[in-house]
Amino acid sequence: MSVLMVGATVSAAPIRVALLDFNDETGQRGDALLGGAIAPGALAAKGALLLGMELAPDPTFSLIDRRDFTSQISNQNLTDAGTRTDTRPSVLHAAQALRADAVIRGSILSFSTGKQMVNQGGHQADLSTITLRVALEALDVIDGSVIALVDGAARMKVRQTAQLSTQLSEDEVLGLLDQAIHEAYGRVRDSIRTWQGFRASRPKVQLSVSTDADPALVEIDGILVGSTPLDGHEIYQGDHVIRIGKPGYYDLTKRIVFDQDLSISVPMLKVELSADELAEVLKTIRLHIFQGEPGFILNTIQTHH
């Protein structure tokens, strides 16, 4: 999986780009002589570096190599309140931790060989076309919306005869990958710059979340953004789905329209409760039902931006 993360505070400042990895989505290998002997996974691992080489010379970007970051996360045995959990920070969560604004994902979609048999004056010849196609996807870190989704392709034609046989080197295949990335990169770059201007004018609010059983995981629109107590997390104004979860407790989900800064207090309900514990939880919810629906207690925050 390839990921680049892009961040910026103001349009005049360089956009921070954190380089993570690159995906192999190829379905089959091409002709062994014409680059097919090169493992697509090994080729994809170099895609992030080639994409980084596109970004690094651009003065609007500041490149950070953090491929070790996701590697360390994937190898950790995570626990929550002492209980082992398979829930792991998402790519977008990692981007937020690095104060990034967007993510670019790169993938090799195909690396294949097409052949055409030609009879030239009684002599048989193979006309082969090697095609390498990549995709680049840019996502908004805050809500996961797609900024851009583009592809790029590079092709090479090779003529094989009984007297002439060609075998591509790894360097030639990397050249194809570089061309495909270069073709896609310009459109992604332009889309990010356009999006940056739009994003700067898009209103945001701050969200704070706490529970009576901290820490609990907080998801916004399906993206893990952190754990409680969550303080001053920025989201766009508008409609969002908030989900609070913790092992041993019921998950709570609510759709909320955010038009100003908001603090959410969540009474957590254990999967198994004694009669006294259940009565206490229900009492707390009833006391605050005028402020919000059961399970989420909503309080507006008066702040000056």
Quick recap of the structure?
The model is unreliable at 286-294 (pLDDT under 50). A hairpin with a 2-residue loop joins strand 11 (217-220) and strand 12 (223-227). Helix content is 27%, strand content 41%.
Rg over CA atoms, rounded to whole Å, is 26 Å
Shape: elongated
CATH class of the largest domain: Alpha Beta
- The DSSP helix count reads 7
Helicity range: 25-40%
What amount of the residues lies in strands? 35-45%
Structure classification: alpha+beta
Task: Please summarize the sheet with the most strands.
Answer: 7 strands, mixed
Task: Provide the number of structural domains.
Answer: 2
Low-confidence stretches: 286-294
Q: Please, could you describe this protein's structure?
A:
With 305 residues, the protein is α+β, with helices and mostly antiparallel strands. The protein has two domains: 2-201, Double Stranded RNA Binding Domain, CATH 3.30.160.180; 204-300, Carboxypeptidase-like, regulatory domain (Immunoglobulin-like). Helix content is 27%, strand content 41%. It contains seven helices and 17 strands. The strands form four sheets. Strands 1, 2, 3, 4, 7, 8 and 9 form a seven-stranded mixed beta sheet that branches. A four-stranded mixed beta sheet has the order 13-10-16-17, with no helix packed on it. It has a four-stranded antiparallel beta sheet with strand order 12-11-14-15. Helix 3 (47-55) crosses helix 6 (170-201). It is elongated. The two termini are 38 Å apart. Residues 286-294 have low confidence and may be disordered.
